[in-house]
């Protein structure tokens, strides 16, 4: 921690996905000493997740698009690491970023995979590129083995080259479902159906914003062609109403939705499968930002044009500031890295230098805002959740218990539901069940304060930053 | 929607104290409306540990109220029991030095004279009570009358059982008064509620409500953090265990940070670690130094906790009064206004006695209450003293 060379400002970048990598490279190229911390064993994040080296994948690029972008980032990182401008700390699970009384920062991490031993990194500024996580809404049977998240299925494909089962259904809503379905199909899994709750008409209403992204439309068309090639049935305006199985998944029932987002009676059909990959979009990871006191806009970290948060010395980029995919994350990371580098050297950043990235950012934010209004879970999904459906898995809280807290005990908001039922108090701290609990309680999903981004041993906590 | 509502008494604040006031007032035959700007247990109640303690109180009016409250909690436990996670687990106060033990034993002797069951525990017996305590501790005192509830559940269930009309999400914006100054109800952002009596159970925000009625009541926030661990197997920590310094911290008038470890298991499995006290206004910023001190204190008491993970921490604002006593009873300055707030960190435990005494004051104002309310008089503070 005393590795500070006078005159060289230090920036800690948290997260080595597209945003963090772009930021680290941009800042390191401009005279800043960067420490890049990430929980994974290799850079890339969720998007550029790499097969473990020992698997000796012959053609990992088959699983990725934008492979050349990744190669450029990887080579850039390697060059800066070799030159000593970037220190890349893998297997570092950050649990807290502390803003000290002198305005500097200490990043507190646990070393993986056991996450028992602490590591601390001091920096003059921090850049949060913490990404997003998957949102999954509950339905009867969703806790059966064989039901996995769409993102989990994709991570499995990219990271271990393994596939989940023989016959899969991909369901939910959002742009992630397409690559998951085609990825599973390419890996030899029979994809029985892609069940998307959004309907084609929703896209028509947003045609202009969507068509402003020719690249994205082409990407969608490519996936569409691949679905056809693998004979994947696309069921738009449909939803999974139940997963069946004794000890593990054996089948799902899917049904059509009416215009109001309710299940049409009598349309249910059973599809046998051993895997259900389900997802309902993404949410930003904001725990570290919130504990630092950064303002949020809804669920995302608020940033200005330079990607600065409202806390001095704290930048944020990528999906922590709003879900928008890898290309947007790269643009935001690049801008954040350049801004941080200039400000850390006491200079005024020159936005003209990153005009191209700023244009990309504007375009992609508009595109994803349009997508967001298209891809929505069925408005009345909560009606499908039976009273005995376990909604919070960690604390085993049922739909009935949540409804009782609202109807009988006067809970009207997510926090009170949590206090009265324990939903969201367990190991995942509501990251999995939060949207489901809020929906069942009929209240808004509000970001819940999680001072520790991950559980921390009390012995580590008792000594954290003690020698400050 | 500006439809006027009418009742016998409006209780402002749906925390633990408001819920107990509603319950006892309703059971005394009054028609009660309970109003809160947030949800049930949305303030300090939802951020507390649920301590029903006699052990930390020196002989005096607060201890008398704690003993009365303890008896009433015992009655409610037969009615609500598991639903509010009531546990008559007892407390163990641990001394860290022979000198500290002597002081603790003198303190316990005074408490015994006031009616507290306080059993001295010498070195070895201490480990029979709490096998996982750090080795080498000289001893402590066992308080079988210390108990615990889950405060949010207790507030919600007492509210429901009271039958009071519960109006959440309504902010009281004015206290309505007659021409001669007596209370005639409250104005809220969603309509008026007419009643000849108001109970101020607004906790840490009780000073603001009193001000709406033109009465001065110096309630200040005293911030506290709580650490929550991962769920552990039962009986790793069997009692509510705390270091003897805790009593001095509670009684301190300093605004600066005090932390003394208070460790207890819960019915649900996690261990709760308190207790910090500092007067920093309503600042909700996370503080690593405070939480670090809590973790250090807890691991000193129970070394096995070193490897146990903290899942989260939360903070709350205790309603602090300059003399550490709550305001309970009618306010002579505003006829019809009753106060039931300012219990600092003891509001869950003292809620039942407070509710019972408020119900007595509301239904039989001329009669002598079960406990002398003089020390709790809401007009005991001059404006300058605050």
Describe this structure in words.
The complex is a heterodimer of chains A (468) and B (386). With 468 residues, chain A is of the alpha/beta class. Chain A has three domains: 10-133 and 283-349, FAD/NAD(P)-binding domain; 136-280, FAD/NAD(P)-binding domain, CATH 3.50.50; 385-441, Arc Repressor Mutant, subunit A, CATH 1.10.10. Chain A has helices spanning 18-28, 67-82, 150-160, 177-186, 200-205, 207-211, 214-229, 287-292, 325-344, 355-374, 399-407, 414-421, 434-441, 458-463, and strands at residues 10-14, 33-37, 86-89, 92-99, 105-111, 118-123, 125-128, 132-134, 147-149, 167-172, 190-196, 234-236, 238-244, 251-256, 269-272, 275-279, 282-284, 296-297, 300-301, 314-316, 390-392, 397-398, 456-457. The longest helix of chain A is centred in the last third of the chain and has 20 residues, at 325-344. Chain A starts with 9 loop residues before the first strand and ends in a 5-residue tail after the last helix. Chain B has an eight-stranded mixed sheet. A six-stranded mixed sheet of chain B has the order 9-3-2-13-20-19, with helices on both faces. Chain B has a four-stranded mixed sheet with strand order 1-12-11-10, with no helix packed on it. Chain B is globular. The A-B interface holds A 96, 98, 116, 291, 293, 395, 405, 408-413, 415-416, 419-420, 422, 425-427, 429, 449-452, 455-459, 461-466 and B 14, 38-42, 46, 152-153, 156-157, 159-160, 166, 168-169, 227-231, 268, 270, 273, 285-286, 288, 291-292, 295-296, 298-299, 305-314. Strand 23 (456-457) of chain A pairs antiparallel with strand 18 of chain B, so a sheet runs across the interface.
Number of helices of chain A: 14
Number of domains of chain A: 3
Uncertain runs of chain B with pLDDT below 50, 5 residues or more?
A: none
* CATH H-level homologous superfamily name of the largest domain in chain A: FAD/NAD(P)-binding domain
Main sheet strand line-up of chain B: 6-7-5-15-16-17-14-18
User: Structural class of chain B, please?
Assistant: alpha/beta
User: What structural class is derived from the secondary structure elements of chain A?
Assistant: alpha/beta
Care to count the β-strands of chain A?
23
Radius of gyration of chain B: 21 Å
Q: In CATH terms, what is the architecture of the largest domain in chain A?
A: 3-Layer(bba) Sandwich
CATH class of the largest domain in chain A: Alpha Beta
CATH level 3 topology of the largest domain in chain A = FAD/NAD(P)-binding domain
**Quick one: which chains have the greatest interface?**
A-B, 37 and 43 residues
Report the oligomer. Answer: heterodimer
Please outline the major beta sheet of chain A: 5 strands, parallel
Give the topology string of chain B: H per helix, E per strand.
EEHEEHEHEHEEHEEEEEHEEHEEHEEEH
Organism (chain A): Streptomyces lanatus
InterPro entries (chain A): BFD-like_2Fe2S-bd_dom, BFD-like_2Fe2S-bd_dom_sf, FAD/NAD-bd_sf, FAD/NAD-binding_dom, Metab_Enz_Cyan_OpOx_G3PDH, Opine_Oxase_asu/HCN_bsu
Domain BFD-like [2Fe-2S]-binding (chain A): 390-438
Domain FAD/NAD(P)-binding (chain A): 10-325
């Amino acid at each position: 921690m005393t590795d500070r060379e006078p005159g060289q400002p230090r920036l800690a970048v948290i997260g080595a996905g597209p945003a963090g990598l772009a930021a680290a490279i941009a800042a390191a190229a401009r005279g800043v000493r960067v420490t890049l911390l990430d929980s994974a064993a290799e850079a890339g994040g969720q998007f550029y997740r790499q097969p473990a080296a020992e698997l000796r994948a012959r053609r990992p690029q088959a699983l990725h698009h934008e492979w050349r972008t990744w190669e450029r980032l990887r080579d850039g990182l390697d060059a800066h690491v070799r030159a000593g401008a970037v220190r890349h700390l893998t297997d570092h699970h950050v649990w807290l970023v502390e803003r000290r009384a002198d305005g500097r920062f200490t990043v507190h991490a646990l070393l993986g995979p056991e996450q028992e031993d602490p590591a601390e990194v001091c920096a003059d500024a921090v850049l949060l590129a913490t990404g997003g996580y998957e949102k999954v809404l509950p339905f009867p049977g969703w806790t059966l083995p064989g039901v996995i998240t769409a993102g989990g299925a994709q991570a499995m494909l990219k990271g271990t080259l393994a596939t989940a089962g023989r016959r899969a259904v991909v369901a939910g809503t959002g742009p992630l479902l397409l690559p998951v379905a085609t990825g599973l199909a390419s890996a030899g899994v029979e994809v029985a159906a892609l069940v998307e709750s959004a309907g084609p008409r929703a896209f028509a209403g947003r045609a202009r914003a969507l068509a402003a992204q020719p690249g994205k439309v082409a990407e969608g068309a490519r996936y569409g062609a691949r679905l056809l090639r693998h004979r994947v049935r696309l069921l738009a305006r449909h939803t999974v109403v139940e997963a069946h199985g004794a000890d593990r998944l054996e089948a799902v029932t899917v049904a059509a939705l009416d215009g109001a987002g309710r299940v049409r009676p009598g349309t249910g059909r059973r599809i046998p499968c051993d895997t259900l990959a389900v997802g309902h979009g993404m949410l930003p990871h904001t725990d570290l930002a919130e504990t630092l006191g950064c303002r949020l806009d809804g669920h995302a970290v608020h940033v200005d044009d330079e990607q600065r948060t409202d806390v001095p010395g704290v930048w944020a980029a990528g999906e922590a500031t709003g879900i928008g995919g890898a290309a947007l994350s790269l643009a935001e990371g690049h801008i954040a890295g350049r801004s941080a580098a200039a400000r850390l050297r006491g200079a005024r950043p020159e936005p003209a230098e990153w005009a191209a990235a700023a244009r990309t950012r504007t375009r992609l934010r508009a595109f994803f805002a349009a997508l967001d209004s298209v891809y929505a879970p069925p408005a009345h999904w909560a009606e499908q959740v039976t009273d005995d459906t376990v909604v919070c898995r960690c604390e085993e809280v049922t739909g009935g218990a949540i409804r009782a807290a609202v109807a009988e005990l006067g809970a009207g908001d997510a926090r009170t539901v949590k206090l009265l039922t324990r939903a969201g108090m367990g190991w995942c701290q509501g990251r999995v069940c939060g949207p489901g609990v809020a929906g069942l309680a009929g209240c808004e999903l509000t970001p819940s304060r999680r001072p520790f981004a991950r559980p921390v041993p009390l012995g580590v906590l008792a000594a954290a930053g003690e020698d400050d | 929607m500006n439809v006027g509502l009418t009742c016998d008494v409006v209780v402002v604040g749906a925390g633990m104290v408001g819920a107990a006031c509603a319950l006892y007032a309703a059971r005394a035959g009054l028609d009660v409306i309970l109003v809160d700007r947030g949800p049930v247990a949305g303030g300090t109640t939802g951020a507390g540990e649920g301590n029903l303690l006699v052990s930390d109180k020196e002989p005096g009016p607060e201890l008398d109220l704690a003993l009365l409250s303890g008896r009433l909690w015992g009655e409610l436990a037969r009615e609500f029991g598991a639903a509010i996670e009531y546990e008559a687990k007892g407390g163990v106060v641990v001394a860290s030095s022979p000198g500290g033990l002597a002081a603790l034993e003198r303190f316990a002797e005074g408490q015994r004279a006031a009616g507290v069951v306080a059993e001295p525990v010498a070195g070895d017996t201490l480990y029979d009570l709490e096998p996982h305590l750090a080795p080498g501790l000289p001893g402590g005192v066992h308080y079988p009358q210390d108990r615990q509830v889950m405060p949010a559940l207790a507030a919600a269930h007492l509210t429901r059982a009271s039958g009071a009309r519960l109006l959440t999400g309504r902010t009281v914006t004015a206290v309505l008064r007659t021409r001669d100054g007596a209370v005639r109800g409250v104005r809220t952002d969603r309509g008026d509620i007419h009643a000849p009596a108001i109970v101020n159970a607004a906790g840490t925000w009780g000073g603001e409500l009193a001000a709406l009625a033109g009465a001065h009541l110096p309630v200040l926030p005293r911030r506290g953090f709580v650490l929550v661990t991962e769920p552990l197997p039962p009986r790793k920590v069997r009692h509510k265990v705390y270091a003897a310094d805790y009593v001095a911290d509670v009684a301190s008038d300093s605004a600066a940070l005090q932390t003394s470890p208070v460790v207890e298991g819960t019915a649900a499995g996690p261990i709760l670690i308190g207790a910090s006290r500092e007067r920093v206004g309503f600042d909700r910023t996370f503080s690593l130094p405070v939480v670090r001190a809590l973790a250090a204190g807890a691991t000193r008491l129970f070394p096995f906790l070193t490897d146990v993970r903290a899942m989260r921490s939360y903070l709350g604002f205790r309603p602090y009064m300059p003399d550490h006593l709550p305001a309970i009873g009618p306010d002579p300055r505003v006829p019809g206004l009753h106060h039931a707030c300012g219990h600092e960190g003891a509001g869950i435990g003292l809620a039942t006695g407070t509710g019972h005494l408020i119900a007595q004051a509301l239904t039989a104002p001329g009669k002598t209450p079960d406990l002398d309310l003089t020390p709790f008089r809401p007009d005991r503070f001059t404006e300058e003293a605050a």
